[in-house]
Design a protein that fits this description.
Largest interface: A-B, 22 and 21 residues
Shape of chain B: globular
CATH architecture of the largest domain in chain A: 2-Layer Sandwich
Largest sheet of chain A: 5 strands, antiparallel
CATH superfamily of the largest domain in chain A: ACT domain
Helix content of chain A: 25-40%
Oligomer: heterodimer
Number of helices of chain B: 24
Number of helices of chain A: 4
Distance between the termini of chain B: 70 Å
Largest sheet of chain B: 6 strands, parallel
Number of domains of chain B: 3
CATH architecture of the largest domain in chain B: 3-Layer(aba) Sandwich
Shape of chain A: elongated
Distance between the termini of chain A: 26 Å
CATH superfamily of the largest domain in chain B: Thiamin diphosphate (ThDP)-binding fold, Pyr/PP domains
Strand content of chain A: 35-45%
Number of strands of chain B: 20
Structural class of chain B: alpha/beta
Chain lengths: 166, 563
Amino acid sequence: MKKYLLAVLVDNKPGVLTHVSGLISRRAFNIESISAGYTEEPSVTRINIVVSVESENELDQVVNQLSKLIDVIKIVNLSKAPSIERELVMIKVRATKKDRADLVNIVDIFRANIVDITPENVVIELTGQQSKIDAICEVLSEYEIVEIARTGAIALSRGPIPVKRM
Amino acid sequence: MRMNGAQAVLESLKKEGVDIVFGYPGGVVLKLYDEVYKMNFPHILTGHEQGAVHAADGYARASGKVGVVFATSGPGAANLITGIATANMDSVPLVCITGQVANPAIGKDSFQEVDVCGITTPITKHNYLVKDVRELPRVIKEAFFIARTGRPGPVSVDVAADVFNTEFDYEYPETVKLRGYTGDYTGDAAEIDAAVAAMEEAKKPLVFFGGGVTSSGTSEELRAIVERLGVPSTSTIMGLGCMASGAKGYLGFAGMHGSYGANMAIQSCDLLLCIGMRFSDRVTGRVAEFAPRARIVHFELDPAEVNKNVHADYRVLGDLRWSLPLFKEKLLASHTDFAAKHEEWLRHTLQVAEEHPFSYQEDGESIKPGALIRKISALMDEDTIAVTDVGQHQMWAAQFYEARKPRQFLTSGGLGTMGYGLPAAMGAKLACPDKKVVLFTGDGSIMMNCQEFATIADHDVDVKTVILENHLLGMVGQWQRLFYHHHYSASELKGKRDFVKLAEAMGLKGYRLTKQEELETVLPKILAEPGPAVIDCIVPQEENVLPMVPGGKRLDQMVLGGE
């Protein structure tokens, strides 16, 4: 299975997310993550989808089927273009006094931040590529992880050309 | 112009050229129906919302125009679902306008509330929920544009009840502005050059066409291309009529119950020229061994259909109205003597086809389904529209009815919806009042929407309903005979139904035929009489639809008839 990050520009209208997510489930596509948000144009929403496929053919199917949706304006496979990919994670870890120093070390090594602290736990925030986030999650699994929230990956193309003109 | 939302809906329909609506009223669409009354808008009240949507579908398939349906919220809209899915699978243009509960009531599990957009998302080309009357004209304009352009399909427009009552300044937009959809499918001419080159090289090419030729209205181009190439051709069930049955080299339809000659030609050709089709599992048999010797050229409008089920070696993406004329031109300009090159191959395929034609054995007594359908086919003129339900009779109709022109063999091909036939036949007749309409159905299928007999009687819609009654859900029974030790589990119909009385109770004339000789003595008179009629034909129970490709087998592993 190979992963690709698709940037999908859609009309900012009600029902669009239903159309996109409904299509993904109906066609039984494997989705690793999906996130959506406003863009520089108020009428356009950008959906970031990480799709996991067996073959190029399957990838074409995902793109072609999504393209058929009337409210999809443009799809670009940013994994095939020079691009920067990021994900944000927040991890709440049980932290007694004796663990705290170790946790601060880990946070420093990963260039993460501690964004909340109480006598019982800390919340660690990290932005980076998915592999880096997977790595910190693995290291922290030695401690007691209370909960994790991840945004899913987003990406931008490098250079001056935006996705809408690619 | 100042008007309310209900008036705006009807005004917009007029601007789209809608001359009839099929529907069923209810609570939240009372305002809309009040305007229907005041404007005397042509409307057919069916017996069930499912009847309305299939009728609109039959109307659309027969005429090529967009079929329009009205239904109320909740159960009304939910009853449309099977019909919308049927239209979606066969790419039929519909606009379904449903009432939704009023804006303040949405999301509160109000009386007769159902999430129409949520339910219809997987079975429509697009859908809308209109909560603000000012959006209504634009949405209806877009709905018709989306339904009829590109690959046609159903569009659902769900309108909150208060929108119908709200007054606003109505203006119908001239044009549609959609950033993600233009409806323009002009392709790349270089792809056509590659297809021509492949044709010039091929020794044993076969043309395989489907419903895309019907919906794009390009059967003349198709016929010219086949003639220029001098090759055999075959179709999917959705393509029936695009080549005249009996045209030179036409092998009949292919697939599970298709002709032996067509299936063998697919398995032995070296190039398969596929035009406007989507490689359904009913057509390919075991897909990994479909057309194993052939390079595949795929002319297709919808990019998502290319390489979906079968890999295409050459693709020609684009509207057939663009690609086929250009392809024809380039073939005519080619210096290759196609006819001479293909002569031996054409002769061979026709010879194979002649070895195993569609056939049945007469016993001199009972009415054989094949004989019945062949007789009706001979009695009807070349403009007649044949409609089917789903099951054995559908396959026999596809085998023995000679569809001569496109849009004259209407059948639920993709979804296989029992109960489609009767309302669709009614819609077809209303679309084409000058054409004769004959419906082939079974004693299973007809019961699924037999309430529409009353609608047909109310409006005196001249549909001749031919019921092939075998006291069995025939196709289920056939599979049970062949693969489930003859266990008729839940498939026997005990024979207490009386379709003649049913017809009479609904206000129609009913006839029963039981003997083969009546096909000569009685049937022609009934068919010649004006006005709707129900003809209940008792046929033998154990008759199989053959030939047949059993599930999971290759197209050349057909079970043949015992002629």
